[in-house]
Amino acid sequence: MASTKFIAWHYVVMLLLALCARPLSATTTEDAGSKQRNGYQLIEWVELMPDDDLEALLNPPAYLDNIADGSEADQIGSQAAEAAAKQSNDRYQQALTSTKVRPEFNQRKISIPGFIVPLTFDENMVITEFFLVPFFGACIHAPPPPPNQMIYIRYPKGLKLENLYDPYVAEGSLIIEGHKSDGMGAASYSMNVDNLSPYTES
């Protein structure tokens, strides 16, 4: 079972990697608008997260340091973890499950890389519904990202995915529309996909 501290630091590490992998001049939505590919705005996952959520996740509360690894308080199902998650004034816990979005992205044509979490597939393992997520293992090997870091995609054309660790690039119109899947998490965004292709370094 994953622990409270594991989840907390997992998100922080993922966010820091995303931020460090790009120049500081590209950290705002306005700057990102200048990056285009085939008429689609190239965006990064942290751009879909409101600034206050990002700030909360990048500054984890001190109480996480006081939780002993393997202790009862470190277990996801523990009363201590549940109580912390319910604290209305705990911005960090709120950010971990935030559905808050950036309304300026609604109906915007974007291009975003990510990993596929299958939701619906046929007997031949052709996927027709999935979540696009920022890092490998999300929802499967690790807890789901915040809903504002997940995009729901319905793909009637179908995708034959050889390996879950293969990243893809989705191009299409982003929509502020939630979708929940039992056991897999929830997304604050959906996308009408025009193109879906394997990700390659450019």
Describe the protein in words:
The structure is a single chain. The chain is of the alpha+beta class and 202 residues long. It contains 5 helices and 7 strands; from the N terminus they run ααββαααβββββ. The chain has helices at 4-20, 29-32, 51-58, 79-86, 91-96, and strands at 36-37, 40-42, 109-121, 126-133, 151-160, 168-181, 185-198. A 5-stranded mixed barrel has the order 3-4-5-7-6. Strand 3 and strand 4 form a beta hairpin.
The dominant shape is: globular
Distance between the terminal alpha carbons, to the nearest Å? 38 Å
Query: Helicity range of the residues?
Result: 10-25%
Task: Please give the oligomerization state of what you see.
Answer: single chain
Average pLDDT taken over every residue? 79
What topology, given as strand order, has the largest sheet?
Answer: 3-4-5-7-6
Structural class: alpha+beta
What's the arrangement of secondary structure elements?
Layout: H1 4-20, H2 29-32, E1 36-37, E2 40-42, H3 51-58, H4 79-86, H5 91-96, E3 109-121, E4 126-133, E5 151-160, E6 168-181, E7 185-198
Give a brief rundown of this model.
With 202 residues, this protein is of the alpha+beta class. The protein has helices at 4-20, 29-32, 51-58, 79-86, 91-96, and strands at 36-37, 40-42, 109-121, 126-133, 151-160, 168-181, 185-198. It has a 5-stranded mixed beta barrel with strand order 3-4-5-7-6.
